[in-house]
Amino acid sequence: QVQLVESGGGLVQAGGSLRLSCAASGRTFRSFAMGWFRQAPGKERELVAAINRSGGNTYYADSVKGRFTISRDNAKNTVYLQMNSLKPEDTAVYYCAASRNPYDTVVPAQSRYDYWGQGTQVTVSS
Protein backbone atom coordinates (compact mmCIF):
# COMPACT_ATOMS: atom_id res chain seq x y z
CA GLN A 1 0.00 0.00 0.00
CA VAL A 2 1.23 3.49 -0.79
CA GLN A 3 -0.37 6.90 -0.44
CA LEU A 4 0.44 9.66 -2.89
CA VAL A 5 0.08 13.39 -2.28
CA GLU A 6 0.62 15.90 -5.08
CA SER A 7 1.56 19.53 -4.62
CA GLY A 8 2.84 22.45 -6.65
CA GLY A 9 -0.12 23.19 -8.88
CA GLY A 10 -1.46 26.67 -9.42
CA LEU A 11 -2.17 29.45 -11.88
CA VAL A 12 0.57 30.51 -14.28
CA GLN A 13 0.75 32.56 -17.45
CA ALA A 14 1.51 30.96 -20.78
CA GLY A 15 5.25 30.49 -21.17
CA GLY A 16 5.75 30.09 -17.44
CA SER A 17 6.92 27.14 -15.38
CA LEU A 18 5.69 25.01 -12.52
CA ARG A 19 7.17 22.07 -10.68
CA LEU A 20 4.82 19.42 -9.36
CA SER A 21 5.84 17.12 -6.54
CA CYS A 22 4.33 13.83 -5.46
CA ALA A 23 5.27 12.53 -2.04
CA ALA A 24 4.75 8.85 -1.35
CA SER A 25 4.27 7.19 2.00
CA GLY A 26 5.86 3.90 2.95
CA ARG A 27 9.28 2.38 2.57
CA THR A 28 8.70 0.69 -0.79
CA PHE A 29 8.63 3.75 -3.04
CA ARG A 30 11.69 2.58 -4.94
CA SER A 31 9.85 -0.57 -5.98
CA PHE A 32 7.21 1.38 -7.94
CA ALA A 33 7.32 2.75 -11.44
CA MET A 34 5.73 6.19 -11.40
CA GLY A 35 3.69 8.26 -13.78
CA TRP A 36 2.11 11.68 -14.12
CA PHE A 37 -1.30 11.89 -15.75
CA ARG A 38 -3.63 14.78 -16.47
CA GLN A 39 -7.32 15.25 -17.12
CA ALA A 40 -8.78 18.36 -18.69
CA PRO A 41 -12.49 19.17 -18.45
CA GLY A 42 -14.50 17.02 -20.83
CA LYS A 43 -11.49 14.93 -21.80
CA GLU A 44 -10.17 11.55 -20.81
CA ARG A 45 -7.26 11.21 -18.45
CA GLU A 46 -3.99 10.84 -20.33
CA LEU A 47 -0.43 9.89 -19.53
CA VAL A 48 1.95 12.84 -19.50
CA ALA A 49 5.21 11.24 -18.38
CA ALA A 50 6.48 8.06 -16.76
CA ILE A 51 9.67 6.95 -15.06
CA ASN A 52 11.02 3.56 -14.10
CA ARG A 53 11.89 2.45 -10.58
CA SER A 54 15.54 3.44 -10.70
CA GLY A 55 14.92 6.69 -12.55
CA GLY A 56 17.11 5.87 -15.52
CA ASN A 57 14.36 5.61 -18.13
CA THR A 58 11.57 8.03 -18.93
CA TYR A 59 8.63 8.33 -21.31
CA TYR A 60 6.81 11.45 -22.47
CA ALA A 61 3.65 12.13 -24.38
CA ASP A 62 4.38 13.86 -27.68
CA SER A 63 2.49 16.94 -26.54
CA VAL A 64 4.97 17.63 -23.71
CA LYS A 65 8.28 16.40 -25.11
CA GLY A 66 10.99 19.00 -24.75
CA ARG A 67 8.94 21.00 -22.23
CA PHE A 68 8.29 18.64 -19.31
CA THR A 69 10.80 16.60 -17.30
CA ILE A 70 9.94 13.78 -14.93
CA SER A 71 12.41 12.81 -12.22
CA ARG A 72 12.43 11.01 -8.90
CA ASP A 73 14.38 11.01 -5.66
CA ASN A 74 14.06 7.59 -4.07
CA ALA A 75 15.75 8.80 -0.89
CA LYS A 76 12.96 11.35 -0.46
CA ASN A 77 10.12 9.12 -1.72
CA THR A 78 9.21 11.83 -4.21
CA VAL A 79 8.59 12.11 -7.92
CA TYR A 80 8.65 15.45 -9.72
CA LEU A 81 7.28 16.94 -12.91
CA GLN A 82 9.08 20.06 -14.09
CA MET A 83 6.85 21.88 -16.56
CA ASN A 84 8.33 24.64 -18.70
CA SER A 85 6.95 26.71 -21.58
CA LEU A 86 3.44 26.03 -20.37
CA LYS A 87 0.54 26.45 -22.77
CA PRO A 88 -3.17 27.02 -22.10
CA GLU A 89 -3.81 23.50 -23.40
CA ASP A 90 -1.77 22.15 -20.47
CA THR A 91 -4.57 23.23 -18.14
CA ALA A 92 -5.82 20.15 -16.30
CA VAL A 93 -5.86 18.31 -13.02
CA TYR A 94 -2.54 16.50 -12.72
CA TYR A 95 -2.31 13.16 -10.95
CA CYS A 96 0.64 11.05 -9.95
CA ALA A 97 0.33 7.29 -9.89
CA ALA A 98 2.36 4.27 -8.83
CA SER A 99 2.66 0.95 -10.61
CA ARG A 100 3.75 -2.32 -9.01
CA ASN A 101 5.74 -3.15 -12.10
CA PRO A 102 7.93 -6.20 -11.45
CA TYR A 103 10.46 -4.98 -14.02
CA ASP A 104 12.59 -1.86 -13.97
CA THR A 105 10.86 -0.36 -16.98
CA VAL A 106 8.54 2.57 -17.60
CA VAL A 107 4.82 1.83 -17.57
CA PRO A 108 2.91 3.68 -20.31
CA ALA A 109 -0.44 1.94 -19.78
CA GLN A 110 -2.84 3.71 -17.44
CA SER A 111 -4.51 0.41 -16.53
CA ARG A 112 -1.30 -0.86 -14.95
CA TYR A 113 -1.17 1.81 -12.29
CA ASP A 114 -2.30 0.66 -8.87
CA TYR A 115 -2.28 3.76 -6.68
CA TRP A 116 -3.35 7.32 -7.41
CA GLY A 117 -3.02 10.69 -5.77
CA GLN A 118 -5.89 13.11 -5.33
CA GLY A 119 -4.69 15.47 -8.05
CA THR A 120 -3.51 19.06 -8.23
CA GLN A 121 -4.96 21.75 -10.49
CA VAL A 122 -2.76 23.44 -13.06
CA THR A 123 -4.24 26.41 -14.87
CA VAL A 124 -2.36 28.19 -17.65
CA SER A 125 -3.74 31.56 -18.72
CA SER A 126 -3.22 32.98 -22.17
Order of helices and strands: EEEEEEEEEEE
Helix vs. strand class: mainly beta
Q: Could you report the average pLDDT, rounded to the nearest whole number?
A: 96
Radius of gyration computed on alpha carbons: 13 Å
Quick synopsis:
By secondary structure, the chain is mostly beta strands.
Could you explain how this protein is built, in words?
The chain has strands at residues 4-7, 10-13, 18-24, 33-39, 46-51, 58-60, 68-73, 78-83, 92-99, 115-116, 120-125. The protein is mainly beta and 126 residues long. The strands form two sheets. Strands 2, 4, 5, 6, 9, 10 and 11 form a seven-stranded mixed sheet that branches. It starts with a strand and ends with a strand. The model has no long low-confidence stretch (mean pLDDT 96).
